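Our platform keeps sequence and structure together, in a single record for each protein. Such a record has a labelled line for the sequence and another for the backbone structure tokens. The tokens are whole numbers drawn from a learned vocabulary of local backbone shapes. The remainder of this section carries one protein's record, kept here as part of the documentation:
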Amino acid sequence: MRHRLLPRATVAPAQFQLEKFTVHADSTPMRALLACLMLLLALPAQAERLALVIGNADFEQSTDLPQTATDATSIAAKLRSLGFRLVGGKAHIDLTRAEMLQQIRALGSEAHEGDEVVFYFSGHGIGGIQTNYLLPVDDGFIETKEDVPELAVDVAAILDRLPKGGDGVNIFILDACRNNPLPTRAKSAYTEKGLVSVSRGATNTVFLYAAEPGERAYVSDTGRSYFTDALLGALDTPGEDLTDLMRRIRLRVTADTQDKSRQQLPWMEGLTNHPFYFRPGPKPSPAPLLASDEGTALAQALSANTLAAYTAFRAQFPDSANLAFVNAKISELSPRPPTPAGHKTGGEWRDTFTSGSGEGPVMVSVPAGEFVMGSPSGEEGRDHDEGPQRTVKIGYPIAVGKYDVTWSEYNACVSDGACPVAKDDGFGGGSRPVTNVSWEDARQYTTWLSGKTGKAYRLLSEAEWEYAVRAGTSTPFSTGATISPRQANYNGNYTYGRGERGTYLGKTAPVGSYDANAFGLYDMHGNVWQWVEDCYEAGYSTQPSDGSALTKSSCSYRVFRGGSWFYEPKVLRSANRDRDAPDYRSRLLGFRVARTLSD
């Protein structure tokens, strides 16, 4: 609220009657009160949650989309329940271009730095060159490709209106990946179906698409969008950031569209500088509060003598002359994984090819043993499919690849004509882990390697993989209660527990760039996901307890483990699981080989 202040010279000292007390405006207490009020008025506004929701259904020219009105209305109600203020106070249905621009201008003027902003659109969209266009309902005048920029709404122009600084975030949710509805003479410059990747590199901006670039989104027999229906369900889960949210949506949509000619794969691009939650979960315990002067703060850390206290000191005084001492204390107090009982170190080798020259990947001997598979219910970042926890006995020693299979190793199979060419990820080949390989490609490699060496190579089972990554630990990571970017390749903009931020490479690293675990295995956490043998089931209640893989005559999904360079640390946890179709390829996904050893 704004107040107009009259010149004091024109006003006699007023009296304000507050219950039994009379206070004069020119008295010392009143001057102090007014000073406090002025200070409060000068404080910056609190960050807001703001959303613009549009659903276009009834078009002049394009095919009508009757479900979009229901989808938009449902999303608006959900966002309102999550604390978002709706621009215009409602979902906007069937807007012309002028009306869309009016609401977009309102969004831009009402959004401020630090706000959490959502733009949701359900309707027709088309992909251009590094941008996408959303169609208004008055699309009847779009006749040629030149008409599109003038008569449709450019998504990039919406982004340009939004603030991008501070701790705020802009989230675009586009359920508009349908067949290009334009007349034939207007289609040539635009995608035939779906939208395109928007490579603008905007800070704190994330795009959630109903389908991958160039692919279409489907509608169910009941007239609901598979994507928006999955989104509505996922928004009810507390404590899930955008990565977890999109993974949940993707799994639901791919399962719902299995009978389509091509499964629909929702897709996300962009990153935020800090995690964003539509529905936040319980807040972690705050870091210890230390004094503002360095000497007193160090004394407090020494008195507490805890990992959290020294870590807080280092964050508060990164240039301290005492940093070497503090780092030594942090190293001393950091949990270390125990060496598994009975493990003999130094057992590594390569199997030579039986014909011609060459040899297989470096292998490491992992001893027999038992462990508890899965995560406890209270573990941070835990997913529902990581339990129930159970004891698994690995009753045999295993030879496990010391590293992920590299480009050089995989391309030897390609050169022999036994493996398909893997798409270049642009990160560099050689000793980096091979990517863009499916589960089927990985199996072809193990078959080829078995033939070249005379040894029975295979993928690890899921239980063997978790046994190998844990290497005798029961903590979220083999590195202990947390992990840092000095220990694995992942998105260092994010932290786990009381871990630290660090470098985000944004690509794969050469294998062996980080320390090995207690079994002598490298990159079990991060760098690239690793395919394992198992079919996926949502939980362990029916899975074998002897270390063998869960197999079926037909598998819709195969499991991969370990996280990758792209994800935040909670995805790298030893118990975390993910899955996709056996023919799925990604620049985040590789594999590691294994074979059973005789006693």
In short: Confidence is low (pLDDT under 50) at residues 1-25, 39-44, 185-191, 335-346. The longest helix spans residues 28-42. The two ends are 80 Å apart (CA to CA).
